[in-house]
Amino acid sequence: MLASLSLILLCQLIGEAVVRGLGLPLPGPVLGLLLLLILLLARDRFALLARGPLRNDGVETASKGLLAHLSLLFVPAAVGVVQKLDLLASHGVAIILILAASVVVTLLVTVLTFRLVSRLLRQQDVP
After folding, report:
1. Residues 95/103, Cβ–Cβ less than 8 Å
2. Theoretical Cys-Cys bridge with 15: which of 31, 88, 110, 115, CB 3.0 to 4.6 Å?
3. Residue in 5, 4, 10, 3 with CA at minimum distance from that of residue 28
4. Residue 81: which of 67, 91, 70 has the closest Cα?
5. How confident is the model at residue 97 (pLDDT cuts 50, 70, 90)?
6. pLDDT digit string (tens) for 66-92?
7. What is the pLDDT of residue 93?
8. Is 12 helix (H, G, I), strand (E, B) or coil?
């Protein structure tokens, strides 16, 4: 499990280094997760080509361990919020309004997308 956790953290480190080095407008951990996804897909493809059994350990076990304790990963975010309470106090109303508006826009876009896909599927079913 230690090697798998090291692989996850190494992918995150590589992603962070590439983003900072190239000045990409993307979070480093996101690029690291994409790298980890590519590595896992390549591992699965090579296992299928070699007709070997896929072992269900390694990164999967480490990730399940991380997910089991996911709430601990929110502690740094909560500390960051507490450190910026003065900003929340001065801009709290604007933040709440923007969050509410973004939720409404997200719901509207979701409903419109669902209706469009539903209409397209209904047209496809009718000969």
Report:
1. no
2. 31
3. 10
4. 91
5. very high
6. 788 888 878 888 888 888 889 889 998
7. 93
8. helix
Residue partners of 20: CB distance under 8 A and separation at least 6: 28
What are the DSSP calls for 48-94, one per residue?
A: HHTTPPPPS-THHHHHHHHHHTGGGGGHHHHHHHHHTHHHHHHHHHH
Cα torsion through 9, 11, 12, 18, rounded to 10:
140
The answer for 53, left when phi > 0, alpha when psi is -120 to 50, beta otherwise, is beta
pLDDT tens for each residue of 47-61:
666 665 555 567 777
CA dist 32 and 19 (Å) reads 10
Going by C-alpha positions, the residue among 111, 107, 90 that lies closest to residue 99 is 107
